[in-house]
Amino acid sequence: MSVNAGVTKPLVDIGKPWQQCDGQQLKKLLRSSLAWLDANHEAIDALNVFPVPDGDSGTNMLLTFTAAWNEVAASPSSSVGEIMSGVAKGALMGARGNSGVILSQFLRGMANVMNNQQTVGAAGLARAFQEGTRLAYQGVQKPVEGTILTVARGGGEPGHPRAVDRNRRGRRAFGGSHAGDFSALEEGRGCGRRRARLVHHPARRVEVIERRTTRRRSRQDEQRARRKPASRKRLGL
Amino acid sequence: MNAQSIAGRIEVSPNAIASLAAQASLECYGVVGMASPNFVNGLAELLHIEQRNRGVQVHFDDEQITIDLFVILQYGTRISTVADEMTQSVKFNVERALGRKLKAVNVHVQGLRVPQ
Hints:
The complex is a heterodimer.
Chain A lengths: L19 E2 L1 H23 L11 H16 L7 H15 L2 H18 L5 E2 H17 L9 H9 L4 H8 L16 E3 L8 E3 L6 H10 L4 H8 L11
Antiparallel strand pairs in A: 1-2, 3-4
Chain B lengths: L1 E3 L4 E3 L2 H13 L4 E4 L21 E6 L2 E11 L4 H20 L3 E12 L3
Parallel strand pairs in B: 5-6
Antiparallel strand pairs in B: 1-2, 3-5, 4-5
Helix pairs in contact in B: 1-2
């Protein structure tokens, strides 16, 4: 299913691609996510049919994320660990609705990984997304697919251990074509230039789905598309 | 619960309603499981999936239905929000299946599970 995710252009310009990001840079990413969510929350509202089809998922996530942002908006900290744990705390206190609670758990998982870290790179962010997904799945006895949980899992998929290993060996962090699946790390200028650009945040996850359907496919993409998506088992969920 | 249709009588047992409510609760985010309404040795007991209906009490008075849910939630979620979502979800799902309004859905948080 393709999802019209609305505006997909970054709303806050972050300039040149980053290899690492510190606390203040992370704040820029968060603000960009918030701006994107603000611009597109109605599109997400329109998707909402579960658990009660009251069409408030986007609004709930926006409120939750705004609370998270407010917690760190004035923070001068340069440590991603401190910023992220502030975000997790803000999201917990301000969680609204089902999707908001899931988002807050996801952010908590990310904060756990970044705890005590000064900066975060591609591999660290990948682990953070995975841990966020793991923690998010733990919070419910019967995970219902097709909710934001599935989107979180799909977003974290290219960050599975193989991708992280590739990065460690100095090759591409999230192989260029994976960008189709992963909004958080956008490919740097020029495919295969071994650059991952930290751009956004899980709140932009919905965008991915659209990009996957509209992107022109290379032969490599065709091969990837034939592969099955990662199972929950493979991701250790 | 009884209802009179043109062709005959329809009876829905409290157990059937409890199943609907338990199913809707467990699909709610933040709900780790149903719990026994009574504390065993002072501890909240997480019910196995087959006996989950024991964590739901269905009361009728004057054909009005009140549901009490006994649950264990995930530590680290906002309890008030999760409980609120449960109330809405259970109300929506049970009312849709039964075709009848519920009087109230009460949530009793019997315990929290701390994630590993």
